[in-house]
Structure formats: C-alpha cells, structure tokens
Amino acid sequence: MTALSPVTTMFVAILVTFVCTRLITRHIRSRETPRGAFNNVAIGGVHIHHQVFGIIAMLGSGVALMSVLKGKSSPESSACSSRPWP
Question: Rounded to whole angstroms, how far apart are CA atoms 76 and 41?
C-alpha cells in the first residue's frame, strides 16, 4: 500500500470534516427533537455559538503550551527568538 500525498490527505480530511459538519447541522435543524450529543447549546435561553468552544480550546491549549515551555529559551520553543530569519 502506498502512502497518500500530503495534498490528497488534506483533501480527504477537509471532505470528511465538511460531510460530518453538514450531517450534524442537518440533525440539529431537523424538525424532530434533537437527541444525543449534537444539540443546540443554550444557557439561560441564550444560544452559545459553536465557535465559543473552539476559542476556549485554543486558549486552554495555549496556556498548557506556555506552562510546558516555561523557562526554556531555545529557539525551537520560542516564537520570538533572537535568531535571524534564514
């Protein structure tokens, strides 16, 4: 079995993500009562957009990365290294 090229892998990943997103959206918007994990999220009657969860996940992963790299000063672990661009 041959390995897929990076472009093919990216295309398949985007296609699978798109199809899954559309299926989840159709499930949420169906006239039936949504069941399972994929429902609209509301707190006190206010809809919480799905991007809120992504933003929280990004903030959490950034804080975790900074805590892991605390005290390290190698160019590989710092976004603001003093090493000049090649």
Answer: 39
Residues 77, 78, 82: CA angle, nearest 5 degrees? 125
Q: Give domain status of residue 47, yes or no.
A: no
Q: Specify if 45 maps to a domain.
A: no
Percent over 90 (pLDDT), the chain: 28
Alpha carbon distance 72, 65 (integer Å): 12
Count up the domains in the chain and report the number.
1
pTM of this structure? 0.47
- What is the distance between the alpha carbons of residues 80 and 14, in angstroms, rounded to a whole number? 31
Domain that holds residue 12: 1-31
Q: Flag whether pLDDT at 11 surpasses 80.
A: yes
Of residues 84 and 26, more confidently modeled: 26
